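Field: COMPLEX_INPUT
Field: COMPONENT_COUNT = two
Field: RESIDUE_TOTAL = 517
Field: MODE = joint
Values follow.
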Amino acid sequence: MINLFQYAFIVRGMEVGLMIGAIAPLVGVFLVLRRYSLIADTLAHVSLAGVAIGLLLGWNPLATAAGVAVISSIGIERLRLSQKVYGDTALSIFLSGSLAVALILISVAHGFSVDLLSYLFGSIVTVKTSDVLLISILGAAVALAVILLFKELVFITFDEETARVSGIPTRAINIALIVLAALTVALAIPIVGVLLISALMVIPVVTAQQMHKGFLPTIIIAELVSLIAVALGIIGSFYLNIPASGAIVAILVIVFLAVFGYKNIE
Amino acid sequence: MPINHNSKPVVDVRNISFTYGDDVVLRDISFAVKEGEYVAIIGPNGAGKSTLLKIILGLLPATTGTVSLFGVDVDRFKHWPDIAYISQRVTQVDQNFPITVEDVVAMGMYAKKGLFRFLSRHDKEKILLALQEVGMDEYRHRLIGDLSGGQQQRVFIARALVSDPKILVLDEPTVGVDAKTREQFYALLKNLNHRFQLTLILVTHDLSVVEHEAGNVLYINHALLYRGPASEFLARKDLTVSLGEPSLHPQ
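Field: COMPLEX_OUTPUT
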């Protein structure tokens, strides 16, 4: 059998994959419990516009995706807070609007359509050394921010109104959460692509929720599910010659169905 | 507890009005609550009680008028851990939310603790004491969604107490719980009011709390129609009839 770790692209893919596998459920748990799962999808589409801008200008698409996602996330939150539009309407505007921008930019510079599929569905083969560095630094920053703001994030997720009355700066924490989600989504593009990112943020959390444990144990279980799915997905994709993103998400869905079935039969 | 009538009001509401579009939800409401008072804000559904509470807590801006908390305008008030709030939403706990009783009570300490700081061993002891105070310490490792409505309310009282508040504000806390649990809940509130000199402001449309527990009543139906002792309020059939629970009226 071939030793897959002799290939530098697999090593880079695994490094980046495990980093994303760790931060996606860490941020995803707050989105799922606040019924904000659609935000991950919206930010993913916004990131695609960022990727298009990067490709058009010849900059690192991952960096422009992260920048555009962060700026848009603040816009989404402000639009939601204005209460002039419903929360899900704000998401729809950004989701379709950013897809339109991405489409126009892509058609303006017809040359980069080859790259586009790898951004839509992820491609660990295309992960560059500079991406590993960027994802490691920003990923570590996201994890550190979640740990430092953990108690406030838990409080506003459980009962935002009481958190606000008790003196928690809920507006700032909400902005922090959506910015962290934007960064996570943008960084996950090389591994699972724009169209499958929300699976990595949502499915491990929903699987862990079936175990009926407290907050911290739920996060630990979600982390284990996510990391195992990413590692097995990348290894499986190499030997079976299938896309890693598809393999990762398929494993996540199978694990969820198995746990859900077992807990409900139990 | 005896109320010091010379003390400054802890809550001072002056000429509050609130309009929503063309609807006048609250009209020129003024009252003060003194330290250690147990006040029930009562009125029929849709009378503007919860809106008034939100204005007092700074969650909604009043159209006109002012609110002071401990002598400070609500917009400039900073000592929010002095005020514990139990919202109507606590009766709608998400059954699948993965959080233990202990972690829910811990939330009461988070604002006081400040950003980027973690709970100490001493804080965890305080959480246990608060749970013991409401008789829920044995449930501390259980998930909140697994408890009955009455038990959940005791946990939320523990969360309120753990920050050593001076005022406890409750919005319809007994909606959806049975009569026995409700009695126990009100007995617990009265006990806290007596033992800790805790000022209690309770929004309700439940006349039984007026009958048995609260010292003073504010009857609101868009305007303040009564402010005085609970015993005299119960004699005002013109007001109590709108609350629609004749079986709870004194015979």
